[in-house]
Model the fold of this input.
Amino acid sequence: MFKGLFKKKQPNDQDSMLVPLKGKIVHLEAVPDPVFAEKMMGDGFAIDPADGTIVSPVDGEVITIFPTKHAISLKSKQGREILIHVGLETVQLNGEGFTPLVMDGQKIKKGQELLKVDFDAIKEKVPSILTPVIFTNLNENEKVVVEGQEIFIR
Done:
């Protein structure tokens, strides 16, 4: 009758996250940058983009848009922290090709447009446009699983 009543609840995002960018899903280990490939910042996946619109995978809040506009950090209502890092070595572009559609601290809804990226303008200037999506605060036993256009933490 009281089974599980006093167990600590973990964040449950089973049906609440979307893939933030259209394109081919790639294992993080295939990203040609050891910071991402070796999961130094956390587990996740990467996207080989087919489109330049990045949307929010969750209901939550924008923690920060990096000053060079190449990355955005989010926090879901459940407390998941998500980093979307557009391309590799894109920090050197100093914002060229990136148009933020939200601001730091802004409340966001799942599917809301966050950032427009002109991949045609930047792809010749950077080593890769693979876009890592990193969950920076997972528990040690949690893994990121992508099925279709949905993201699950298991």
In short: Residues 1-11 have pLDDT under 50 and may be disordered. Residues 23-153 form a domain with the Glucose Permease (Domain IIA) fold (CATH 2.70.70.10).
